[in-house]
Design goal:
8 strands
């Protein structure tokens, strides 16, 4: 009888320890994710505050990094405009209008000119036509969301901002990162597209998740202890 009780107690404690160890491991993993997110946010803030660069040709530059301020001068090629499908703004569904800006040397950079409502699904978007002459665009370099394998469909719609994929449909070289417009001269003639704000930086839910996992570890150990104590009382151990 005593041997059976000892095995039962050992099993309960073993399960409690395994569960607690797993929960602690998951909590520590969430803390590592938090450290990574904080480091990334710090890196993005550093890039946002860096000296703006001027992009004048399609060839890449060592100074070209996502979120760095940048400027470009050229003429929009509206005939090769695309829509990045399914992007929301203030909770409203829509798309991002992406238009190549042609440099004087014949190359281009993809400019994320802004957001349009979901009903606008044909390119070029006439309600969001850019100035016809040369423009100066100021903004930030945006991340390339693709791997070069997602070209626009026959209607000029693409699911992700895949620079290589979009460039594969264009008759000229394209800068390796898109330029997210903040303002341009001359300004947009109408109210559309609406410039896309930079994403807000946050630490995400990692800290709260870590606390939850550590709490589960405590619950597992305390619960295991309570079960063992009840078992001992039931069998006259105390």
């Amino acid at each position: 009888m005593r041997g059976s009780r000892s095995r039962r107690v050992a099993a309960v404690l073993a399960v409690a320890v395994v569960v607690a160890t797993t929960c602690v491991g998951l909590g520590l993993w969430q803390l590592r994710r938090l450290d990574e997110r904080r480091a990334l946010n710090h890196e993005i803030l550093d890039r946002r505050s860096a000296t703006p660069i001027t992009i004048e040709e399609a060839s890449g530059s060592a100074a070209a990094e996502p979120y760095r301020p940048a400027a470009a001068h050229g003429t929009y090629d509206v005939e090769h405009e695309v829509l990045v499908y399914g992007r929301s703004l203030d909770g409203e569904a829509g798309h991002h209008v992406v238009t190549p800006l042609l440099f004087s040397d014949g190359g281009a950079i993809l400019v994320v000119r802004g957001w349009v409502p979901f009903a606008m699904q044909a390119v070029p978007v006439r309600e969001a036509a850019p100035p016809a002459n040369q423009v100066d665009v100021n903004g930030f370099l945006a991340p390339d969301e693709g791997d070069g394998t997602v070209p626009p469909d026959a209607d000029g719609i693409v699911g992700v901002l895949d620079v290589g994929g979009i460039a594969s449909s264009l008759p000229y070289d394209v800068f390796p990162l898109p330029l997210q417009l903040a303002d341009q001269t001359p300004p947009q003639p109408g109210s559309l597209p609406i410039p896309v704000p930079l994403p807000e930086l946050s630490e995400g839910p990692h800290l709260s998740y870590a606390i939850q996992w550590f709490s589960f570890a405590v619950v597992a150990l305390v619960g295991g202890g309570i079960l063992v104590r009840r078992d001992r009382r039931a069998t006259g151990g105390l």
